Amino acid sequence: MKVYAKKYVTRLWAMFLLAGLSMVTISSLSSAATLKIGDSYNGGIVFYVDGTGQHGLVAAKADMTGSSGKVEGFFNWYDAKVAANSFVDGYCDWVLPNKEQLNQLYIHRGSLGVTLNTYYWSSSESGAGKAWAQDFSNGQQLDGNKTNTSRVRAIRSF
Is this prediction's pTM over 0.85? Predict the structure, then answer.
């Protein structure tokens, strides 16, 4: 009688364990499937989702406005960092993307509605007076003088 009870309890325990694991797998898959590149989420447009599907990056829906020169929407690097750290669509934790994040923005520019073939600043510095920017007409990353002016597309993480 004891042998039968042990087998029954062991089988029941194994069924609960497998059922629990399948629920974790199903919930993980459904979360990953909910967000994709180009979706509107957390005040911006998704342009990167990590392997878990739980975290990623969104870009502001439009370039930052204002300027540090004569042309509207163009900022030197110093002002670009300030402009990116704005209150946009109910969120205040926007930042200037680093060099790698900016390249992801370039790769997914069609999903983000970026249609301007111009330079965008990154937060990555390449020297005392230089920082990285990316040409959105061809994808080339260049280190330019921080006093040059380029566009700004702020990002935030989720």
Answer: no
Least Cα distance to 57 among 46, 68, 71 occurs for 46
CA atoms in the 13 A half-sphere facing the CB of 8: 5
Concatenated DSSP letters for 7-19? HHHHHHHHHHHHH
Say if residue 77 is exposed, middle or buried (CB neighbours under 10 Å; 0-12, 13-18, 19+).
buried
Each residue of 25-55: pLDDT tens digit?
444 444 445 899 999 999 999 999 998 888 9
Tokens 């629920």 identify what position? Answer: 23
SS3 content of the chain, % helix, strand, coil (to 5): 35, 25, 40
Residues 124, 99: contact at Cβ < 8 Å? yes
| Whole-angstrom distance, CA of residue 154 vs CA of residue 142 | 19
The two tokens of residue 67 are 């300027």
pLDDT higher than threshold 90 for residue 114: no
Total residues belonging to the chain: 158
